Amino acid sequence: MKKECSFLRWSFCLSVLCAFLAGCETMSGVNVGTGLSLPGGVSIGANKTISGSGESARSRADKKQQAKLRLYVFDCGSLYFDDISAFGLSQQDTAVRNLFVPCYLVEHANGRLLWDAGLSTRIVGQGKQDMGNGVYQDYHKSLLTQLATLKLRPSDIDFVAFSHMHYDHVGGANYFAGATLLIQETEYEAAFKAYANYPIFDYTLYQDLAASTKVLLSGDYDVFGDGSVKIISTPGHTPGHQALFIDLEAYGPLVLSGDLYHFEASRRLRAVPEFNTNAAQTLASMDRLERMVTANQATLWIQHNRALAKTLRLAPGFYD
Ligand SMILES: [Zn+2]
């Protein structure tokens, strides 16, 4: 049984946050890790509604019909490693040294979610950069330029979530400070408070998000409240690492790995990188995600998989 919330009532709810707890929490059943429940698409403190609570169910259904779930993939750079032993692999386990760095956009009838933001846009067009220790990075066309090909600006993005806050996943993050950040509370603590203890976090790449609206998660999260786009908690690579499940109609169920795996060999050998924050958690997350992939007959995309990337339809093409 759903309680109806009128638009006026919602305006009131938004201005008095505690009213979330009191009155509206049964509207969508979207549970937030903090114990609050939010109706799908409402951003706390952002003073806007994305789904439009004044809409009738019919018009929402119509809109959903018009705006089917879509996934866009962007090329947000490349990483090269002379030596892959830090990934828990021997040099012989795989010949791959070149990693794809993607960004993704999920379009849903009730909003747009950006998943990962690639390498730093500061290095765009500067050629292959030597980062030291046999690591190189390269980035040809900025995420913003690629979004513009879809006629989108950062202000058109409603939600942003990162698999984790390592530098190669948040390079364009500062452009999306106006979106609602969906982040595990453990990752938030590490990335925004204790980042000095995590050398692969570069706070300057996402510092503008310190002031953005956030939903702090403590587990899985149904982004739009209909089960079609779910953040899957998979800690271990970092304290609050997460993967993304997308129930695409034509392509079928898809899971984006984040950095639970970097190489196909990582998955085959259950390899845990030595720079992961918790090895036991990583292995448990692998087990959990693999069970989910099997149960849903989903395809798993290892995000950094260059060989896979060569076969993908990049934006402005899309998956639906
Ligand atoms: Zn990565």
The pLDDT mean sits at 85
Question: What general outline do the C-alpha atoms trace?
Answer: globular
Poorly predicted runs: 1-55
Structural class assignment: alpha+beta
- Tally the helices: 8
What is the N-to-C order of secondary-structure elements (H for helix, E for strand)? HHEEEEHEEEEEHEEHEEEEEHHEH
Please give the order of strands in the largest beta sheet: 8-9-5-6-7-10-11-12
Give the percentage of residues in beta strands. Answer: 25-35%
Identify the CATH homologous superfamily of the largest domain: Ribonuclease Z/Hydroxyacylglutathione hydrolase-like
Radius of gyration: 19 Å
Bound molecules: zinc ion
Number of domains: 2
Largest sheet: 8 strands, mixed
Helix content: 10-25%
Q: How far is it from the N-terminal to the C-terminal residue, by CA? A: 31 Å
> What is the correct CATH architecture of the largest domain?
4-Layer Sandwich
Write down the CATH topology of the largest domain: Metallo-beta-lactamase, Chain A
Number of strands: 17
Q: For this structure, what is the CATH class of the largest domain?
A: Alpha Beta
Write a compact overview of the structure shown.
With 320 residues, this protein is an alpha+beta fold. The chain has an 8-stranded mixed sheet.
Question: Would you mind describing this structure in some detail?
Answer:
- It is a single chain.
- Helix content is 22%, strand content 25%.
- With 320 residues, it is an alpha+beta fold.
- The protein folds into two domains: 1-39, no CATH class; 69-311, Metallo-beta-lactamase, Chain A.
- It binds zinc ion.
